[in-house]
Amino acid sequence: MPTKPRACHSAAKLICRNWLFLFCCSLASTSLTAQEGNVTPFAVKADDNIVIYHNANVLDENGQAFTAKMSVIVTGDKIQALKPANQISANELKSAQVINLSDKYLLPGLIDSHVHLATPPNDLFAKATMRRQAYHGITGIRIMADDLRPITEYARASIAGEIAAPDIYSAALFAGPDFFNDPRTIAANGGIKPGTGPWMQAISDETDLTIAIAKAKGSGAMAIKLYDNLKPELLSKITQAAHQQGMAIWAHGMVFPTEPKDVVAAGVDVISHTCYLAYQASDPKPLTYKNRFPVNAALLQTGDNHLMETLFASMQQQNIYLDATLTVYQQYDQRLAANPQMSPKPHCSLSLAATLTQQAINKGVKIATGTDHIMPRSSAFPALFDELELLAKHTKLSPLAVIQAATLNGAYILKQQDNIGSITAGKLANMLILNADPSADISKLRDQYMTVKRGFMLKPQDMPNITELEMPDEQ
Questions:
Q1: Could you check whether the bond before residue 284 is cis, i.e. omega within 30 degrees of 0?
Q2: Which long-range contacts (CB under 8 A, 24 or more apart) does 8-17 make?
Q3: Which of 34, 70, 118, 285 has its CA 20 to 30 A from that of 372?
Q4: Domain 110-420: homologous superfamily in CATH
Q5: Going along 264-349, which residue ranges are E strands?
């Protein structure tokens, strides 16, 4: 797990200073522009603006139950206090904007823990995707490797209230040099040679890891994503070096050729895609990401494979979260059903992914809710709602446990648990308000009254429609 950050060596300090100088100059420039009249239609109008969300059923800060007849007092973009509604004084009600939420259900804003928005960059598409997320209760997203040049600007614009969007937390990608002929890396590195930009770096045994990580940090990333073509010893060194600079490590379940047990042993913070972990029980194992093949389902479908038991126990002991992405495997199933002759065949099914996810849950592994999927324009809701419903249907997680995975757990993997993830005084006013109780039926998350993002109110019926220009129909 992350160790206490240490100072960079002198070369890395210079890199840090140079990148941070450029970043701060950019922020200063945009700040001046805002002061000169930048439009911020999605920001609260004053830091001392007080809103009382009154008499609601509020999810407690541990995500265990809704408490009736509670009021949340928001000042500016922060939660100031949470009290029983009958303890709100007449003077408090008189001095605030009051939103009466009798019979409504108030919970933290949701977090999609696996999103790609700029591979390749498409400004209209990205902003439409984020708009749909923000208007439907998603107040945070984890970017899992993209061109961070536009992503960092979206993150700034979201915080400033210039666009309707979740808060954005990004990773830079590290992989071996052979990975960077992948068309996606070419698309995400326009104007430069893939593997040479700070947001997507080709890493070898000769790489100065301290400098490489400092560059990634300077590009706006808060984490390193380990993707492909990294051997166990190098993967472990990257993890240790990143933790020393206060960077999280997010990894695939298998970072080919490094097998899952060695990814776990390195002490990464989050592992994505349940079925990549299934390669631990496969013999042989794929040597590269590009040459993946189906996992050995026969060894895994009963949900008690001893190799997986050992692997999940190790994840639990090290507090490594699992970003299951059941939506990905649902998509595989749908593509295979539409084209039974497709080649290569998907490496895993939804049924097997769910079985393995439940096995991980049984061993105490904490789940995060990522999608790695963007719904077409015709869908009213973002993919996260499918992911939450799949978890509730195909595992033994209760609806409230699924909501906890999408709120508190999402906050922890972002190292933002002090700022988001629960309805707690001092945290950001990121909230989802529902018309119905989701604790017995997870689909009630779709019955939405309002999203509050950093104190700003967004009602789903007010969302501008996504146009065909923004999000063309799939061919």
A1: yes
A2: 8/210, 8/214, 8/245, 9/210, 11/208, 11/210, 11/211, 12/210, 12/211, 12/213, 12/214, 12/245, 15/211, 15/214, 15/215, 15/218, 16/214, 16/217, 16/218
A3: 285
A4: Metal-dependent hydrolases (3.20.20.140)
A5: 270-272, 321-323
Alpha helices (H) in 54-168, listed in sequence order: 90-94, 123-135, 148-160
**Pair type for strands 321-323 and 367-368:** parallel
Q: How far apart are CA 386 and CA 400, in angstroms?
A: 16
Q: How far is CA 42 from CA 123, 164, 410, in A?
A: 18, 6, 23
Whether the per-residue pLDDT at 33 is higher than 80: the answer is no
Separation CA 227–CA 246 (nearest Å) = 20
Please name the helix (run of DSSP H) or strand (run of DSSP E) that holds residue 447, with its range, or none.
Answer: none
Q: What is the pLDDT of residue 474?
A: 72
Closest by CA position to 104, among listed 440, 432, 466, 354: 432
First and final CA of the chain: distance in angstroms? 44
Mean pLDDT of 310-319: 98
Q: What is the CA radius of gyration of the chain?
A: 22
**Structure pTM?**
0.92
Q: Calculate the alpha carbon distances from 161 to 156, 186, 386 in Å.
A: 9, 31, 28
Domain boundaries, the chain: 34-108+423-461, 110-420
Whole-number Cα distances in Å, 47 to 75, 298, 421, 427: 7, 58, 21, 14
Quote the CA–CA distance of 412 and 9 in Å, as a whole number. 29
Give 118's DSSP letter: B
Of 74, 38, 60, 1, nearest to 426 by C-alpha is 74
Question: Which long-range contacts does 188-194 make (Cβ < 8 Å, 24+ apart)?
Answer: 188/118, 188/119, 188/120, 188/121, 188/145, 188/146, 188/147, 189/147, 190/120, 190/121, 190/147
DSSP conformation letters of 235-276: HHHHHHHHHHTT-EEEEES-BTBB-HHHHHHTT-SEEE-HHH
Q: Please state whether 282 falls in left (phi above 0), alpha (psi between -120 and 50) or beta.
A: beta
Residue 204 burial (CB count, 10 A): 11
CB 104, CB 56: distance < 8 Å = yes
- CATH 2.30.40.10 for the 34-108+423-461 domain, yes or no: yes
Whether 434 and 105 have beta carbons less than 8 Å apart is answered as yes
Q: Which helix (H) or strand (E) holds 381?
A: none
115-169 per-position pLDDT tens digit: 999 999 999 999 999 999 999 999 999 999 999 999 999 999 999 999 999 999 9
Residue 31: pLDDT above 60?
Answer: no
* Angle, alpha carbons 194-198-204 (nearest 5°): 70
